Amino acid sequence: MNTLTPFWPQPAARLSGLLYLVVIVGGVIAELVVRERFLVANDAIATANNILANEQLFRWGFASDLIASLCVVPLIYLLYELLKDANPHVARTAIFFSLVGTAVQSMALLGHFAPLILLKRGVMLGVPIDLLRAQSYMALQLQGIGYAVALAFFGGTMLCRGYLIARSGIVPRAIGVALMIEGLAYWANSLIDFVVPVLANTVLPILMATGLAEVALCLWLSIMGVNVRRWQELRALQ
C-alpha cells in the first residue's frame, strides 16, 4: 500500500476535476439553458407552450441534471480521500451536507419532469388544459424551491470543503477561502429566496460570481492536480 500512496493523489485529483466539470456543465445546461429559457414569469400558457414546442431539449435538461447528480456521488468520495487528513471530522461533515443536498436536488427534479406528464398525459385523461398548464408552471416553481433547499446544504459543503482546502494546502489556499465565501453566499441566497423573494434576482449575480470558486477548483484539479508532497505529509501525521 505504501508503494502506491505517492501515485494515488494525482489520479484522484484529475478524476475529481473531470467529475466536477460534468457537474458544473450539467447544472448550467439544466438551469440556465433549459429551465430559465422555458419558464416565463407569471405566464403558465407561454411556459407550457415552450415545453411542448421544445420537448426534446426539455428532456435533455432533466437528463443533464440527473447525470450531474450521479457524478456528485463519486466526487464526494474522492474529495473526502484527498482532504480528510486536514480534519477528519470536518471532512465527514462535508460528506453529510453534500449527500443530503444531492438527495434533495434529485427529488426536486421530479418538478422538472412533471410538466411533461401533466401536459401530455393529462390531456389524454380529459383534464382541462388550463388546469394542466397551471399545474405545470407550479411544478417548475416547486423544483426551484427544492433547488434552493439543496443549495442551503451545499452551502455547508462549501464551507467545510473550503476550510479543508485552506488548511491542507494541497491546492492554493485562496481557492479554499473563495469556496467558504461561496458557501455563505449559498446560505444567503436560499434565505432570501424563502424570506424576501422579491430580492432574489438582486443577489443572483453575486451567487453566480462566487460560483467561480468551484470553477477554479475544477480547473486546478484537472490541470494541476494536488501538491502530492503536502498530501503525504498530512497522511503521515495521521
Characterize this entry briefly:
Helices cover 84% and strands 0% of the residues. It has 238 residues and is an all-alpha fold.
- Large-scale geometry: elongated
How far apart the termini lie comes to: 15 Å
Biggest sheet features: none
Fraction in beta strands: under 5%
Question: Which terms summarize this structure?
Answer:
single chain, 238 residues, mainly alpha, 84% helix, 0% strand, disordered N terminus
Characterize the structure shown.
It is a single chain. This protein is mainly alpha-helical. The protein has helices spanning 9-38, 44-53, 55-83, 88-124, 129-168, 173-195, 200-210, 212-223, 228-236. The longest helix has 40 residues, at 129-168. Mean pLDDT is 92; it is low at 1-7.
Helix and strand arrangement:
Blueprint: H1 9-38, H2 44-53, H3 55-83, H4 88-124, H5 129-168, H6 173-195, H7 200-210, H8 212-223, H9 228-236
